Amino acid sequence: MEFLQPPGWREALEARAAHPDALPIWGGTDVMVELNFARTRPAALLDLTHVPELSRWESEDGGVRIGAGVTYTRLIAELGDRLPGLAMASRTVGSPQIRNRGTIGGNLGSSSPAGDALPPLYAAGASVEVASVRGARRIPIDEFIVGPKRNVLGEDELIAGVFVPVRDDAAQQFAKVGTRNAMVIAVCSFAVDVSEGRVGTCIGSAGPTPIRAREAEAFAASAAPEDAAAREFGELVAAAASPIDDVRGTAAYRRHALSVLARRTITWAWETRCA
Amino acid sequence: MRLTCVVNGEPREIDGVWEGESLLYVLRERMQLPGSKNACEQGECGSCSVYLDDVLVCSCLVAAGQVEGRTVTTVEGLAPTEDELHPIQAAFVEAGAVQCGFCTPGLIVATHDLLARNPSPSDAEIREALAGNLCRCTGYEKILDAVRSAAEA
Lengths: 275, 153
Ligand SMILES: Cc1cc2nc3c(=O)[nH]c(=O)nc-3n(C[C@H](O)[C@H](O)[C@H](O)COP(=O)(O)OP(=O)(O)OC[C@H]3O[C@@H](n4cnc5c(N)ncnc54)[C@H](O)[C@@H]3O)c2cc1C
Ligand code: FES
Ligand code: FES
Fold this sequence. Notes:
Shape of chain A: globular
Strand order of the largest sheet of chain A: 4-5-10-6-7
Number of helices of chain A: 11
Structural class of chain B: alpha+beta
CATH architecture of the largest domain in chain A: 2-Layer Sandwich
Distance between the termini of chain B: 44 Å
Mean pLDDT of chain B: 97
CATH architecture of the largest domain in chain B: Roll
Number of strands of chain B: 5
Strand content of chain A: 15-25%
Radius of gyration of chain B: 15 Å
Largest sheet of chain B: 5 strands, mixed
Bound molecules: flavin-adenine dinucleotide, FE2/S2 (inorganic) cluster
Structural class of chain A: alpha+beta
CATH superfamily of the largest domain in chain B: Beta-grasp domain
Oligomer: heterodimer
Shape of chain B: globular
Order of helices and strands of chain B: EEHEEEHHHH
Mean pLDDT of chain A: 97
Low-confidence stretches of chain B: none
Largest interface: A-B, 30 and 29 residues
Number of helices of chain B: 5
């Protein structure tokens, strides 16, 4: 197996173009499980941990651009004030060891419907920045992920980072159902992002991709912040999910749990905004 | 490949490493450092916990090639000398937090990381910090006792 270790972003893109069959790796928390169990034998590994550009985040007009190599531990410590929903979701990922190593770019690359960084990014209306030697493009996140573990990344492209809009006085929440308070793949999860005249949502782990509950968003954007509206919002979110029965839970349970998570999280978000 | 890195303060050079094997495999099978344990190889149990450049990680999830030029500290590197225990290790022994001992090295390294960041953690903080380390024997109560007494020491 070849091991490619580019020292910078330009070299990384060149390596990717020259070796389209190389598997990118940052934290390895998804890739190494596949390698250890011999489920995959890539021709080459493309190690991105030496690319300094990927480990940076910076403020941009209207939001924050986060490099693909920023870990959950750093999202929590460095961006918790600006992106509280993403930080809440990051806190639920695995364990300290996993959060120290796993990255937002790896979560995007894996494109699992249960990826915990994804619902807050969908709810905020984030876009994924992908790049190749041909140039860079930004793709709305719900167009980037197209199916379970499938995305539109070209074979010569890498994920550079993700742009997350930050709106004035936004209240964000994330909630996840699992059997333990750590180390669990979500049975289902929900993110909400409330700002003036806008409500963004996303359902995790209850469909082939994360799903935005558009009807619920439109309803909540103009509803008065009251209990009855929160309940109605919960019903609309549950209706937007498309869960299946699997080892982690039944479709019916997921739908019910989502109505509860949605009702609670919108209530908390409204309380924050009224306070 | 030839892997060059620093392990427990010593520069090491190992030939014939397969780039895709884990750091855990390199430590145990190529460097005769069997302190880090292999129980799951999928990040779930924490028994392989080490420091990679001062960051607590599961060594089973780090590719050997990624360690090139880096610094690794394992449980073997924590005690001040060959014949002494680190105070955290002593606290585990005294509290009866070691039964079969398979989880212990990982818990020692994870506790070391916790106390370095937070010298007097609350119980909730201890639980959160050790959530990625599984023990099938003790029921965890003695482990919590050990961490509390190491924190006071
Ligand atoms: C014990 C354990 C617990 C976990 N718990 C959770 C959890 O609670 N929630 C959760 O969401 N996930 C969890 N995961 C999964 C994993 O930690 C996350 O998906 C993490 O974000 C992956 O990041 P990484 O940097 O380790 O990715 P890697 O394993 O390095 O890569 C993941 C994928 O992304 C691709 N990739 C990485 N970077 C790039 C890039 N810049 N450009 C293009 N492709 C790229 C890789 O080729 C690969 O396909 C867990 C994993 C383990 C082992
Ligand atoms: S062996 Fe690495 S976490 Fe279990
Ligand atoms: S003492 Fe046996 S696994 Fe913890």
